[in-house]
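Quick one: structure tokens for this chain, please?
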Amino acid sequence: MIKLFKRAPARGSAIEAASPNYIALTDVGMKRDENQDSVLARPLPGGRLIVAVADGVGGSDDGAAASKAAIDCLYRAVRDANHPERALIDGYAQADEAVRRLGSGDRRPATTLVSAIIEGDRAWIANIGDSRAYLADGRHLRQLTEDHSWVAEQVRSGRMSEEEARQSQMRNVITRAIGTGESPSPDIIGPLALSARDTLMLCSDGLHGLVDEIEIGELLNGDYGEETAPRLIDLANEAGGHDNISVVLYRPA
């Protein structure tokens, strides 16, 4: 078994959880003073695992509180649940309510939330917002989730190219989020079969918005080991690091 993940990048980063087959790593980036991202990788009863990334919005304090509340609420909701898909749907509804309660007056904190429950060689993935889930299979990298953002909707409708979306000043405008009070149902993917060569990656837009998917794929499908996750953070910071950066990696043992 590969022993993974001893090193974190030098500036403003923290390894939140690590084991021989998963890591949750978050970094403040190069431009921000506070980290509004939250990450999760925690075992569940029955040999299952919950992993998640949340990217808070609404100002530094509100964004950080929103992402943490969503992560904590999701974990509590799925901890003892038996059906992964139902657990994720219920967990997202409870997270939405918890984040909504943080608001008052004109304050409307919110957060993205992408997560996965892994059970044996299968994964169930849920998403709201523009944090993403990817799967690397040893040869290719595939984006599993669809962004809930204004630019992504323009690209899907054919009104904007991928390159135009990357350069757009609207690229950070999300159209669905946890905390809106609308109890949005997440997109659900799964059960997704996982093989021994697969790597599941969850990340915030501080990573996928700055690092080319070709580079990400080369790292995840290449000489995978303890330097992989820190190197992804380094690449985002080398590209400017204008946002907080979070990544969770999982590879079957």
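Residues 60-78 form the longest helix (19 residues).
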